[in-house]
Amino acid sequence: MRLILDIAVTHIVGRGRQTLVAILGVAVGVGFSVAMAALMQGGQDDLIAKLVDTMPHVQITDDRRTPPVQPAELAFDAAAIAGLRPREDRRGIINPTAAFAWLKEWVPGRVAASLTTQGVVRYLGRDVGATVVGIEPKAERGVSSLVEDFVDGSFEALDVGGNNVVIGDRMAGRLGAGVGDTVTLVSSSGLSRGFKIVGLYHTGITARDEHEAYILLKSAQILDARINVVNEIRIRLDDPAAAPAVARRAEARLGYKSMSWQEANEQILEALVVRNVIMYTVVAAIMLVAGFGIFNIISTITHEKARDIAIMKSLGFSRGDMQRLFVLEGLAIGLAGSLLGWLLGFALVYALASVHFELNAGGRELTRLPVAWEPLHYAIAAGFALASAAVAGYLPARKAARQPPVDIIRGAT
Amino acid sequence: MSPPPALIETEGLTRILPEVVPVTLVEDVTLAIGEREFVAITGPSGSGKSSLLYLLGLLDRPTRGRLRLAGIDTDPMDEAARAARRLAMLGFVFQFHFLLPEFSARENVEIPMRKLGRLSRPAIRDRAGELLESLGLAGHVDKRPDQLSGGQRQRVAVARALANDPPLLLADEPTGSLDSQSSEQVFAILADLVHGRGKTVVAVTHDLELAARMGRRIHLVDGRVVSDERISAAGPPG
């Protein structure tokens, strides 16, 4: 094998310029594949991180996926009731204290209860529709990433003094209100109360910054006339990937719809899979084009070396030796191109990671291109390049090795 | 005590090219060539001399007939077995030197030995040097083929053919492209292989004067053996 390797190296070194062009072709393919994969993976990771960070990992609400079994169905085998819709349960989660305690026993993470209702925030005659969330500030800190997005005040300020509210900065802007001003919250049940703004946050997500308001759980229960009611339990897990299992277990026990973040974003995750398929198809196409370069040079070498192939066969080299020789030449070009491509890819990813957007943003808006530093991308790009190189070397090698040496020797003499 | 088997034995060896109109290159050749023989295959152009040599050298497969090398039937051999047989038992010298142009004279001679793998790398290097030296190329071992004269290249080709010490050397017009002086040198080397080193040399030539100085002459016409005569005058040169 060492002899075959020596001959292969001699062949490709002997064609310096052609070899360099082929190596550069592979290197550009590998480099751009790595950069593209880093950018796409980075965007995907960023999106998933946002999904994971900005919403509970598991959300238990007072909805049910299927209506409960009806008494008639339990009493009579022949009874079947179809077309029932689960009722909109205004009572909230039944016995929330027991459910909460049970969850805290085993859930590997933090749990918080809340009452979420729809309402209007009013200030100086301006109305903004809002989702009003009643929370317990200490527990909320454990499950919500919102604590990191406060531009003024905090959740804890809700506990100080009378009726307090924290709202997004965009809502404050629309209302023309600021910290210290008192706004009126009107619930869907028609009750209203004055709340003093004690905090502003900016997540960068318009829907939240403009249409969410947080008050104490007790205040929300009074405002919505639902004393002691909790209609949502939110869970933040140590391992976000465990969310589906936790959701399944909670739903099986409590009977309430328990939705993991993966289920809530199923379509987005499916779209990401499709995006990955597209990305790797493009990577394969790039490497295929690079493979044509290798095919070209190996074809040229086998054509030019037809006489040498014949003479080596006359010396005692087998057809398999000849195939190995040219496949090795293709692989050597593929390997050199891959190594150079890794450097190019690294440089491109580094350059992309250095791009900075000058945005006036304090939330979760992108200020840099999200890139992933993933060794797997380098391995996959090199894998495609080497496979492409092996095929590109094998096809002309097989043809050349099959040619009877006598035909070539006769033609040459 | 029975005599040792002939180095080459053929029975009805025939090679027909399967063209639209089939072309018969070699037809019904039956012969035996023993050890230490110096054989010339002669005949007019297109008489099948080279085709017969390629069949004997396992570079081509006969359409019909049998070929035994050192008593072993080559018919059932697959491609790899034939390649292995060529490597260990046969040496080729062609009209054109066919040296690998990127390698030096020494490296060209080393290649068959490295492929066979019987010797260590230092032993291979020494043997290549010795072979080239014995053929008068001591000062040219590191030169590439394009830095050598025609005669020197052909002597390197002979050294390469002898690298694995094969008992049988097949030469196709080995002096065909050389001037008379180089031609004489190469012929002397081939003769010495037979008389000095005990090899069997089968050489195709259309130079009847050269053929007359070999030990045996097989004459072909239209692919058939028309005469097979031993030349008593043949002997060591000089």
Automatic annotation (TrEMBL), chain A:
Domain ABC3 transporter permease C-terminal: 281-405
UniProt domain MacB-like periplasmic core: residue ranges: 19-252
Membrane spanning stretches: 20-40, 277-298, 325-355, 375-395
Cellular localisation: Cell membrane
UniProt keyword Protease present: no
Source organism superkingdom: Bacteria
Keywords annotated in UniProt: Cell membrane, Membrane, Transmembrane, Transmembrane helix
GO CC, any one term: plasma membrane protein complex
Keyword Membrane: yes
GO biological process entries: lipoprotein localization to outer membrane
Membrane topology (UniProt): Multi-pass membrane protein
Similarity-based family: Belongs to the ABC-4 integral membrane protein family. LolC/E subfamily.
Descriptive protein name: ABC transporter
Species assigned in the record: Thalassobaculum fulvum
UniProtKB/TrEMBL annotation, chain B:
Domain of life: Bacteria
InterPro entries: AAA+_ATPase, ABC_transporter-like_ATP-bd, ABC_transporter-like_CS, ABC_transpr_LolD-like, MacB-like_ATP-bd, P-loop_NTPase
CDD domains in the record: ABC_MJ0796_LolCDE_FtsE
Residue ranges of domain ABC transporter in the record: 8-234
GO molecular function: ATP binding; ATP hydrolysis activity; transmembrane transporter activity
Coiled coil: none
GO cellular component: plasma membrane
Alphabetized UniProt keyword annotations: ATP-binding, Nucleotide-binding, Transport
SUPFAM superfamilies xref list: P-loop containing nucleoside triphosphate hydrolases
Protein's UniProt keywords contain Transmembrane: no
Protein family according to the UniProt entry: Belongs to the ABC transporter superfamily.
PANTHER family: IMPORT ATP-BINDING PROTEIN (PTHR24220), LIPOPROTEIN-RELEASING SYSTEM ATP-BINDING PROTEIN LOLD (PTHR24220:SF689)
Protein name: ATP-binding protein
Organism of origin: Thalassobaculum fulvum
